[in-house]
Design brief:
Layout (H helix, E strand, L loop, with lengths): L2 H11 L28 H17 L7 H8 L7 H16 L4 E2 L9 E8 L10 E8 L2 E9 L7 H25 L8 E5 L2 H8 L11 H12 L3 E5 L16 H10 L2 E2 L2
Parallel strand pairs: 2-5, 5-6
Antiparallel strand pairs: 1-7, 2-3, 3-4
Length: 266
């Protein structure tokens, strides 16, 4: 079944077909919390989990849904009316963008590159950070992620560095896969981040005591940088492609986000 047909079926099965589409999958001003609203009954909770599971499948080809779906997934065990309203908003957005999908185009570029970002302490319930990355092969998006970090970060640099480590591991996997498939690729991968402290740590041969709690990630990334297969570059926050994987964004920013990811159609 095509993703467009699947998205259509999800919207129809939840009686959202006659809904009015919205411009974004989540509100840029609203931060969901575990204790928001009245708890759903058993029947509605089952429906909530079913719909969210279907939306998870849809994110395989719709990276613009990744953050919003990841957020509602965090309440599967204890969903409320407010959380269900957030799920319905995602469905309203899907209804208005049924024809959207990733565009892949031929290119002579063999560069593996990635953009890594994090929303430091963005979760209001446990103050864990949400990290996101987008990995490209040439101009084409090949893998992406939006996920809450498993531990609390005591600084934005620590959170960013953990995200860099995740993105680095993903790029290494892509490079190994390309090698196994016999596809040539540039030996040096580029990784863009908007935190100057994290970039400095990746090239600093001196390990500071205040960063020892991220020692494994530190050595993992710095070793790749020192051996030259990884080049970490600084990018301005306003140009950060992965921004939409870490936080709710406005309609204008979302359009730019989709353009940068090569999402076309509507």
């Amino acid at each position: 079944m095509s993703q467009q047909r699947y998205a259509t079926d999800v919207v129809k099965q939840t009686n959202m077909w006659n809904c009015r589409p919205v411009d974004t999958p989540n509100s840029a001003s609203e931060k969901l919390s575990l204790n928001d609203g009245e708890k759903l009954g058993e029947t509605d909770s089952t429906k909530y989990r079913s719909v969210v599971g279907a939306l998870q499948y849809l994110t395989l080809t719709r990276p613009d849904l990744s953050f919003a779906v990841n957020k509602v997934c965090q309440f599967l065990h204890s969903s409320t009316i407010v959380h269900w309203s957030a799920v319905k908003r995602i469905l309203w957005y899907v209804k208005g963008t049924l024809g959207m999908g990733l565009q892949l185009r031929s290119s002579s570029s063999t560069l593996v590159s990635a953009f890594s970002d994090v929303d430091w302490a963005g979760c209001v319930d446990d103050r864990r950070s949400t990290r996101g990355f987008a990995v490209f092969f040439g101009p084409n998006l090949v893998t992406w992620s939006a996920r809450k970090q498993p531990t609390v970060s005591r600084s934005s640099t620590e959170a960013e560095y953990k995200s860099l480590a995740n993105a680095t591991a993903e790029m290494m996997w892509i490079q190994r896969l390309l090698t196994e498939l016999g596809i040539s690729h540039s030996p040096v991968a580029w990784l863009w981040c908007d935190n100057i402290g994290a970039k400095y740590l990746s090239a600093n041969p001196v390990f500071h005591a205040r960063t020892k709690h991220i020692e494994i990630d530190f050595h993992f990334v710095r070793e790749r940088v020192a051996q030259k297969p990884l080049d970490i570059r600084f990018i301005n926050t306003s140009d950060q492609v992965a921004d939409g994987f870490t936080k709710p964004i406005s309609a204008a920013k979302l359009r730019e986000f989709r353009f940068n990811l090569n999402l076309v159609g509507g």
